[in-house]
Amino acid sequence: MKRVLTGRFMHETNTFSIVKTDMALWRRRDFHTENEIPAVFRGTRSALGATFEAADKYGWTLTHPVSANANPSGRVTDDAFETIGGMILAAAGRQAPIDGVLFHLHGAMVTEGHEDGEGELLERLRNVLGPDVPIVVTLDLHANVTQKMADNASALIAFRTYPHIDMYERAWQGAELLERAMQGEIRPRTVIARRPMLHGLDWGRTQTGPMAELIARGEALETGGTALAVSICAGFALANIRDVGPSVTVTIDELTSDDASGQAIAEDFMDHAWATRDFTTVAMLSVADAVARASQGRPGDKPLVIADFTDNPGGGGYGDATAFLKGLVDAGVERVAFHAICDPAAIAQGMRKGLGTATLTIGGKIDQRLGGGPLTLTGEVTCFTNGKFIAYGPMGGGVERNYGPSMVFRVGGIDIILISNNGQATDLGQFTSLGIDPARYSTVAVKSMQHFRAAFEPIAREVVLVDTGALCQVEYKEELFDKVRRPVWPLDPLPL
Q1: d(C-alpha 197, C-alpha 278), whole Å
Q2: For the chain, how long is the longest CA-to-CA vector?
Q3: Taken in order 13, 16, 21, 26, is the CA torsion positive or negative?
Q4: Phi and psi at residue 381, in whole multiples of 5°?
Q5: Cα distance between residue 135 and residue 15, in whole Å
Q6: Taking Cα atoms as reference points, which of 252, 304, 234 lies closest to residue 461?
Q7: Cα gap 54→100, rounded to integer Å
Q8: pLDDT of residue 215 exceeding 70
Q9: What does the alpha-carbon distance between residue 85 and residue 82 come to, in Å, rounded to a whole number?
Q10: 118 close to 105: Cβ distance less than 8 angstroms
């Protein structure tokens, strides 16, 4: 019986955020250890759900020290990295011998002491386990993949959908590859190619364009047996680090192939990424234009879904920008469901007052320079919850979500959801658990760049994006990216 180390340690770090990701922040939303983990993830369409199914099928004994997935925010503190990473490394040593690893990471973690959090963790894990134990890792397709990560993981398998609705499938792909490696059928090894670019591949959008093209080509190579895995990562541009940007990794079987063949594939794919680096499907409205569109709704229409692109909590946004909400309030727009303002203090104030009429100051408290300052509004508190529910949408997988104490504050014709634990809108349950059916509103406002589409596009008459000038508004200036390798596009003029 094979002993397999598994778990999650996931963080997408926005280095421009002033909110440090300490242990308190890790524990607030999605943090489980040891025997808590099977009860949370067995039977779900999640990465760990697939891992448990694979263990049952192949007869593995799983060691699962921790599952930690903090909302995107600022740099991970050294204490948090050492604490959670230490749980993983201690389990690897304590449960030896470990025959294989199937771990679920993000790929864009930056700590106070390490620009490449995953590379550092994988190097330490490799030192504990030795050179021959297969280490298979699933990644978000927004990973900033490094040479250090490729050198220390046997295989890197990135998501292929954005919104990410294939975490379960990618974990199963990793499990099948790991089983073959532990049986000695294959010996996976991963090579990487990159280009001097901060972003590209339409920021990872997989519906059309170069990302979709490369994913299809990679899957064909896997199906034909040319490569064990081909992963295309768009990178996460909100990171002032040396190795930010897109990458392609190719996992080959050392028993039948060599590095050169895999490298040739990776370089060819990155040539395409470089040639199409200007391609984008992102178009944003101003706040004024978005408010005007929201004002056009009529009773009986499906909702217009408006996403605040630049205050996306899924990209490290603070989730408390008020510019768009202020525009809606000032214009007197009716039949709006708004998710969400992250403001624990306002919720505490509302709970002290209780249900009914209240005057509250909400949002804009973390950094008033970005996305609008606090709003003092008079309305009606209509609902309180503990913020917990089961997410059954395309990205939910049947896993419990926890947004902390939450409430609904009705101001005019706008139902404003306030949450304590920051997070973007990806599941209808984020509304329905608070008594709001988003399909019944003329306008549904969410804070998200892309993930909202999986659940909300099917109920929408139209989807538009709004720029509120918040933290995730990317400005490619040299002074903001002073740690990145140079030359790099778009900061420097580079030949086609």
Answers
A1: 11
A2: 71
A3: negative
A4: -80, 120
A5: 28
A6: 304
A7: 13
A8: yes
A9: 5
A10: yes
The vertex-54 CA angle with 51 and 58, nearest 5°, equals: 140
Distance CA 365, CA 367 (A): 6
Can you name the residues that pair with 247 across neighbouring β-strands? Answer: 194, 233
Q: What is the DSSP string of 363-424?
A: S--S-TTSS---EEEEEEEEEEE-SEEEE-STTTTTEEEE--SEEEEEETTEEEEEESS---
The pLDDT tens digits of the residues spanning 447-458 come to: 999 999 999 999
Compute CA 467 distance to the chain's CA centroid, rounded to the nearest angstrom.
Answer: 20
What is the mean pLDDT of the segment spanning 233-246? 98
How buried is 288 (Cβ within 10 angstroms: 0-12 exposed, 13-18 middle, 19+ buried)?
Answer: exposed
Q: Are the C-beta atoms of residues 174 and 138 closer than 8 Å to each other? A: yes
The residue with tokens 């925010």 is 73
Task: Measure the CA angle with vertex 19, ends 14 and 22; round to 5°.
Answer: 100
The 10s digit of each residue's pLDDT in 47-78 is: 999 999 999 999 999 999 999 999 999 999 99
pLDDT at 42: 97
**Amino acid of residue 221:** L
Render 164-226 in DSSP notation, one character per residue: ---HHHHHHHHHHHHHHHHTTS--EEEEEEE-SBS--GGGG--SSSHHHHHHHHHHHHHHTTS
pLDDT band at 299, cuts 50/70/90? confident
Residues in the chain: 496
367-408 pLDDT, tens digit per residue, is 999 999 999 999 999 999 999 999 999 999 999 999 999 999
CB 192 within 8 A of CB 147: yes
Contacts of residue 165, defined as CB under 8 A and 6 or more positions apart, other chains included, come to 394, 395, 454
Q: H or E element: which one contains 38?
A: helix 36-41
Look up tokens 């709003």; give the residue.
Answer: 375
Helix axes 287-294, 323-331, angle to 10 degrees: 40
CB within 8 A of 277, min separation 6: which ones? 197, 199, 200, 201, 489
pTM (two decimals):
0.96
Q: Is 108 helix (H, G, I), strand (E, B) or coil?
A: strand
pLDDT over threshold 70, residue 496: no
Q: In what order do the strands lie in the sheet containing 229-233?
A: 188-194, 247-253, 229-233
User: Would you say the C-alpha torsion 57, 63, 66, 68 has a positive or negative sign?
Assistant: negative
pLDDT of res. 262: 97
Distance from C-alpha of 138 to C-alpha of 120, rounded to nearest angstrom: 16
Residue type, 151: D
CA distances to 77, 158, 322 from 447, rounded to whole Å, are 26, 24, 11
